[in-house]
């Protein structure tokens, strides 16, 4: 009787070949319920380890996946994802692995793509961005047994992670604005369902209390220029006008800058502007936009290498991103320069 392969076990158990490999080798990446089901099926089918080695190499798709659940116009305008994908591609090219990329509008579509990729055995693992609280995507990936790396937060299931320093980013921005004499600081986030906006909102509120400065939090529905303009118009029409606005990214800030001019305000002089993402666009604006500089390409490269490492051996390492830095430009001038 022919010995069963990992692919055979995966078919009977209703999981991916990678999930079977993780379960049979005692590795993280699958839930205990899924692990028990796989082990039971393997035992019933008479699986033996020496048959698995050949099956594992045959089961590899030779590709990793990335799904971005944001409006396409937002992704096209954001420098972050462009550089992040370049970083991923650099790591994948050196490893001889392909990248499958898809852009969708919501997490439900993202989960559907993961299920399709899994059923068609098109990817060996995925890079997950924009983590959310009680993230349904992670539960679905664990159920499928599809390996992943989480970008932005530490993964509670023990999968590899790239962790952002959201609190450090907010602190350098707030301290800079205080140094420039600003005392009513607004933070404009996009997509409040994302954990990084939640962390940033909490961080700026905490700093407001500790530094004795007034903080306002506003939310744009997405990361488009139009949303940035609309949310800024509503913000400055309120009873307390901020003297500084911190935007989640440069696309929102572009919309905000246009809205301020439309309302007769002087960007920089009347209201300081800061973007939490840097790009060449920030330098080209007038006034040039003070921005937080990160290294998205390094983040993409690191995330990819962590996932490839996890696929080849046991490991769920979490790596902290390099500390962000502030690039000071004309949109946040010193107090003595604001009257002109």
UniProtKB/TrEMBL annotation:
Which domain of life does the protein's organism represent? Bacteria
All residue ranges annotated as the HTH lacI-type domain in the record:
4-58
Q: Which UniProt keywords apply?
A: DNA-binding, Transcription, Transcription regulation
Pfam families referenced in this protein's UniProt entry, alphabetically: LacI, Peripla_BP_3
Alphabetically, the GO molecular function entries are: DNA-binding transcription factor activity; transcription cis-regulatory region binding
Gene3D superfamilies referenced in this protein's UniProt entry, alphabetically: 3.40.50.2300, lambda repressor-like DNA-binding domains
Q: What's the name of the protein?
A: LacI family transcriptional regulator
